[in-house]
Amino acid sequence: MPVLTAIAALFIMQFLGEVVVRLTGLPVPGPLAGMLLMLVALIFHGRVPVGLRDTCHHLLKHLMLLFIPLVAGIMLHFGPLADEWIPFLLACIGGVALTIVATALSFRWMLRRSRAPGS
Q: Which residues does 49 contact at the CB level (< 8 Å), separation at least 6?
């Protein structure tokens, strides 16, 4: 799978996620629904194509660049955030804490699974 095909697949899944969210009214971001659709597609496919895997690894290496639009958006809406900075800060801290806990639990589960007899 060439790089452009892999990127197109990622964008198509994101678009389909947006369509699903708008049609169903689900209270989740479209890209998240797209990721779940990609996960389901890969489970049915049985493996991750090499080109998709390599493209995703390359994107993850440069993940910080993907945060630039987010930071620019925050600066654009800095006025309303200045009035609501305490809930925003608490939401950020809570999100980080939940991410750390979820990562630790997932890691522990995977570690136990890999050490299980017969694996």
A: 1, 6
Report the pLDDT value the prediction gives residue 39, as an integer from 0 to 100. 92
| Residues spanned by the domain of 26 | 1-61
**What distance in Å separates the CA atoms of residue 9 and residue 55, rounded to the nearest whole number?**
11
Domain-located, residue 37:
yes
Cα 98 from Cα 71, distance rounded (Å): 21
Q: What is the pLDDT of residue 1?
A: 66
CA distance 6 to 110: 27
Instruction: Report the length, in residues, of the chain.
Output: 119
Asked whether residue 83 falls in the same domain as residue 57, the answer is no
